[in-house]
Automatic annotation (TrEMBL), chain A:
PANTHER family: CULLIN. This is Cullin family profile domain-containing protein. InterPro entries: Cullin (IPR045093), Cullin-like_AB (IPR059120), Cullin_CS (IPR016157), Cullin_homology (IPR016158), Cullin_homology_sf (IPR036317), Cullin_N (IPR001373), Cullin_neddylation_domain (IPR019559), Cullin_repeat-like_dom_sf (IPR016159). SUPFAM superfamilies: Cullin homology domain, Cullin repeat-like, Winged helix' DNA-binding domain. The lineage of its organism: Eukaryota, Viridiplantae, Streptophyta, Embryophyta, Tracheophyta. Residues 394-624 form the Cullin family profile domain. SMART domains: CULLIN, Cullin_Nedd8. The keyword Ubl conjugation applies. Belongs to the cullin family. It holds the Pfam family Cullin_Nedd8.
From TrEMBL, chain B:
Residues 38-229 form the DCUN1 domain. GO terms for cellular component: ubiquitin ligase complex. Residues 1-39 are annotated as: Disordered. PROSITE patterns: DCUN1. It holds the Pfam family Cullin_binding. The gene is BnaC02g46540D. GO terms for molecular function: cullin family protein binding; ubiquitin conjugating enzyme binding; ubiquitin-like protein binding. Gene3D superfamilies: Cullin, PONY binding domain (1.10.238.200), EF-hand (1.10.238.10). InterPro entries: DCN-prot, DCN1-like_PONY, EF-hand-dom_pair, PONY_dom. SUPFAM superfamilies: EF-hand. This is Defective in cullin neddylation protein. One of its GO terms (biological process) is protein neddylation. It comes from the Eukaryota. Neddylation of cullins play an essential role in the regulation of SCF-type complexes activity.
């Protein structure tokens, strides 16, 4: 209905409408509207009625003063609502309760909105000019405010109680009218007129309190009666239901707040009791591999701030306990059994540790959704027990022995190529948990040397493969020496070919014995003790010849012969049949003495060969007291003593045509540990100097912690060791203490 | 005077400068020549009383003689203090220049006057600033070789007793006991030597409640601390 109205063909002389007169007319419209709202038989407004009402207002507002009644009409507009509310609406509401009251309220609110809509259309002209000119609230707002002030403010508390009662009813499993609640709560929202304050203050805050106390009661009884899995199931269900509740009738903004309350009462308050439940708590679930329950536990606690920390902690404790048990088992078996079976147990231990890791990694990835907290827990757990000693062997040594068993010929592990690759991969991963990585490297190197030099490596590809993996994990420096060793072997083969060519071209130089020499680059290989044994003349010639050859290839290099690593094939001319003996160079030297003399005393042999007692006893034992008795010992006691004498055992025989006479290896452990300790001292020195050179001045604690950090990739340095090195560096004038502050150090250029 | 010390082949440096307080006023030009000539005569006469005529220095024998004249034992700290005052470089020997330096500083020219001056000298040395310097000097004085920079345990024990015995009796007794039974160190470095002095000055004893293993105390003191704690338990 527009203003152009005035341009119509009604060329009426506008009579001035008196206020009372005009208002009476408006009242008829209002009364009609009320009747419609009350559901009384009343026809709807037609367009003429509507226009008349509108025009009346228009005219009364556009009349010349003193007959411009805008202000009065504005006031009467509000009074219309107030009157209706006081006489009809409020009484109707006050006489009802609970759900009935809610329904009435919804109806009355709906009616009110209709009334506002209609009346504001009738009085529209006021909205156009009057309210703007006087900066007054528009008609719509006036209407709503009436309802708010007269109805809402009176009743909202009672309404809130009724709603909450229904909510709790629904929680107890009864069906309720969700649409009704939605409509009621919409009132709270709408009455805020753009702000959520009414909803939040008059309803939500109470609802949250009530929900909290509801779940608090439930939780306190469930926690007593239910097992952990059952309690978690119920909690999960409750959270699901509450979310549905929000979706159906609460305002969406309530969701995070409600969820937080429920979580708090069910999961946070009783977290400790729940997780620590004796027979069904986190520990028990881990023990019994209850993957689903643990996944649920993760899901529930994941959204709670710091909720996962206790779970991760229990996980860590559990894995640590399992790991410790394995270690203890291996320790116990080792002390109860003989040395050689004990080493099998140690291999079994590594296998089991790998399996343990695989098992719990699955947990981390699947149950615990790859969460960093659990990766960390697993790592820390493994770091605890992977650094324990078993029967005197460090974990570094065990791991190196394990690798040796896989990589050597005739090792205890019989696996397919794929399985080997997979195992090597896992072994390298385990290395990450071992703090003494440098110790592992040294043991590994020693055993690699054995495999390479005695041709005991089962598969070249696997050897290279593990070196690649180690390089990836620990860096190039870690594997550079080992790679050098492997390369040396390849070069050695080429070298041998040249040597044979040389011999072919110089027949005079030929020593008359098949000689294979492997030249090792000193820096790559472990250091070997080698001392000057008096070689048999045949061998002396070999050494000379090779030296001659080698000088044709390179001058400026010194050859140091390591006889302890040599192998010799001798033909033993026994009475029954000749047998080829595969022995070490030292053993060969001993045996060859008997070519010239039948019988020799211990001392004879000692002086002729120029060996230490320890070594000689070992050698003679292997030839006279072990499985194959090539020499006869007099007296035939079980051990070698310095008063014994020896004779060639011509009667010796065996069903094989060739036998290998092993020399039990010297315990390398002590030397490895010594070498590593020495290297560590240098490494600490270097780290300290490096740090001080760049920082110039540094406090003691900082220096120590930076040192530890720098070295942590290879080993965990002992704080006392660092202090000792620092003092040494002070003595050597690399560092000095600050004159004022004895806890500060300066670098001396 | 402790004589023996162990050898090590390391770089030798002198991080602790040895100074003695020089309280001599500068004499005027003219009087200097006349007076100092006469003074020097006296000092040289005194020097010659004790010096070895062939070597031209006061040797250990001469020092013994001096000590008996001064009525002090040759292991008395006052002799060491005298050595410090004269900036003597070699243990057991006083050169002419060193002798003159000390006597000039002490303003004495006879043995009797020297004897009287010794208590004053001790007081001066015991002033905290001087004592730290003197303490460092004592260590260096015992090194018999240019290339040496540490002293054997036995000598250290004697030196500690002489130098710190009167002021830190308790600490010295316990530490000396410890040094004798431990096996980690056969010699003591300057850093460790100075560390012990700091220890005596800073750490309450015998409770050692303000000691911390986290700090930069020399390792030997950490070990001493742990040993003491074990004993006290």
């Amino acid at each position: 209905v527009q203003e152009s109205f005035g341009n119509q063909s009604f060329r009426m002389e506008r009579k001035t409408i008196d206020l009372e007169q005009g208002w009476d007319y408006m009242q008829t419209g209002i009364t009609k509207l009320k009747r419609i709202l009350e559901g009384l038989p009343e026809p709807q407004f037609d367009s003429e009625q509507y226009m008349m009402l509108y025009t009346t207002i228009y005219n009364m507002c556009t009349q010349k003063p003193p007959h411009d009644y805008s202000q009065q009409l504005y006031d009467k507009y509000r009074e219309a609502f107030e009157e209706y509310i006081n006489s009809t609406v409020l009484p109707a509401l006050k006489e009802k309760h609970d759900e009935y009251m809610l329904r009435e309220l919804v109806k009355r609110w709906s009616n009110h909105k209709v009334m506002v809509r209609w009346l504001s259309r009738f009085f529209y002209y006021l909205d156009r000019y009057f309210i703007a000119r006087r900066s007054l609230p528009p008609l719509n707002e006036v209407g709503l405010t009436c309802f708010r002030d007269r109805v809402y403010n009176e009743l909202h508390s009672k309404v809130k109680d009724a709603v909450i009662a229904l909510v709790d009813k629904e929680r107890e499993g009864e069906q309720i009218d969700r649409a009704l609640l939605k409509n009621v709560l919409d009132i709270y929202v709408e009455i805020g007129m753009g702000q959520m304050e009414r909803y939040e203050v008059d309803f939500e805050s109470f609802m949250l309190l009530d929900s909290a106390s509801y779940y608090s009661r439930k939780a306190s009884s469930w926690i007593q009666e239910d097992s952990c899995p059952d309690y978690m199931l119920k909690s999960e269900e409750c959270l699901k239901k509450e979310r549905e509740r929000v979706a159906h009738y609460l305002h969406s903004s309530s969701e995070p707040k409600l969820v937080e309350k429920v979580q708090h009462e069910l999961l946070v308050v009783y977290a400790n009791q729940l997780l620590e439940k004796e027979h069904s708590g986190c520990r028990a679930l881990l023990r019994d591999d209850k993957v689903d329950d643990l996944s649920r536990m993760y899901r529930l606690y994941h959204k709670i701030a710091k909720g996962l920390e206790p779970v991760a902690n229990i996980f860590k404790q559990h894995v640590t306990a399992e790991g410790n048990a394995l270690v203890q088992q291996a320790e116990d078996t080792a002390t109860n059994q003989a040395a050689n079976t004990a080493s099998v147990q140690e291999q079994v231990l590594i296998r089991k540790v790998i399996e343990l890791h695989d098992k719990y990694m699955v947990y981390v990835v699947e149950c615990f959704q790859n969460h960093t907290l659990f990766h960390k827990a697993l790592k820390e757990a493994f770091e605890i027990f992977c650094n324990k000693t078993v029967a005197g062997s460090s974990s570094a040594e065990l791991l190196a022995t394990f690798c040796d068993n896989i990589l050597k010929k005739g090792g205890s592990e019989k696996l397919s190529d794929e399985a080997i690759e997979d195992t090597l991969e896992k072994v390298v991963k385990l290395l990450a948990y071992i703090s003494d990585k440098d110790l592992f490297a040294e043991f590994y190197r020693k055993k690699l040397a054995r495999r390479l030099l005695f041709d005991r490596s089962a598969n070249d590809d696997h050897e290279r493969s593990i070196l690649t993996k180690l390089k990836q994990q620990c860096g190039g420096q870690f594997t550079s020496k080992m790679e050098g060793m492997v390369t040396d072997l390849t070069l050695a083969r080429e070298n041998q070919t040249s040597f044979e060519e040389y011999l072919g071209n110089n027949p005079a130089a030929n020593p008359g014995i098949d000689l294979t020499v492997t030249v090792l680059t000193t820096g790559f290989w472990p250091s070997y003790k080698s001392f000057d044994i008096n070689l048999p003349s045949e061998m002396v010639k070999c050494v000379e010849v090779f030296k001659g050859f080698y000088e044709t290839k390179t001058k400026h290099r010194k050859l140091t012969w390591i006889y302890s690593l040599g192998t010799c094939h001798l033909n033993g001319k026994f009475d029954h049949k000749p047998i080829e003996l595969v022995v070490s160079t030292y053993q060969a030297a001993v045996l060859l003495l008997f070519n010239t003399t039948d019988k020799l005393s211990y001392n004879d042999i000692l002086t002729q060969l120029n060996l230490s007692h320890e070594d000689l006893v070992r050698l003679l034992h292997s030839l006279s007291c072990a499985r194959y008795k090539i020499l006869v010992k007099e007296p035939s006691t079980k051990t070698v003593s310095q008063t014994d004498s020896f004779e060639f055992n011509a009667k010796f025989t065996d069903r094989m045509r060739r036998i290998k006479i092993p020399l039990p290896p010297v315990d390398e452990r002590k030397k490895v540990v010594e070498d590593v300790d020495k290297d560590r001292r240098y490494a600490i020195d270097a780290a300290i100097v490096r740090i001080m050179k760049s920082r110039k001045v540094l406090g003691h604690q900082q220096l120590v912690s930076e040192c530890v950090e720098q070295l942590s990739r290879m080993f965990k340095p002992d704080i006392k060791a660092i202090k000792k090195r620092m003092e040494d560096l002070i003595t050597r004038d690399y560092l000095e203490r600050d004159k004022e502050n004895a806890n500060m150090f300066r670098y001396l250029a | 005077m402790p004589r023996t010390a162990s050898k090590t082949t390391k770089k030798r440096s002198k991080p602790y400068t040895v100074t003695s307080s020089d309280t001599d006023p500068v004499p005027s030009a003219s009087s200097k020549t006349k007076k100092s000539a006469k003074e020097n005569d006296e000092k040289y006469k005194l020097f010659n009383k004790y010096a070895n005529t062939s070597s031209g220095v006061i040797d250990p024998e001469g020092i013994e003689k001096l000590c008996s004249k001064l009525k002090v034992s040759h292991t008395d700290i006052k002799i060491l203090m005298l050595a410090w005052k004269m900036k003597s470089e070699r243990q057991g020997y006083f050169t002419k220049a060193e002798w003159r330096r000390a006597l000039k500083a002490l303003k004495v020219d006879t043995t009797k006057k020297l004897k009287k001056a010794l208590p004053e000298l001790e007081k001066e040395v015991r002033k905290p600033l001087n004592f730290a310097d003197f303490y460092a000097y004592a260590f260096r004085y015992c090194l018999t070789d240019e290339r040496q920079n540490c002293i054997d345990i036995e000598t250290i024990c004697q030196l500690l007793d002489m130098v710190l015995g009167s002021t830190f009796r308790d600490q010295v007794d316990h530490f000396v006991d410890y040094l004798k039974i431990q096996n980690d160190y056969k010699v003591i470095t300057m850093d460790q030597w100075m560390g012990f002095y700091r220890f005596c000055n800073e750490i309450s004893f015998p409770d050692m409640t303000n000691y911390s293993l986290e700090l930069a105390w020399p390792l030997i003191l950490d070990n001493f601390f742990e040993w003491m704690r074990e004993k006290q338990a």
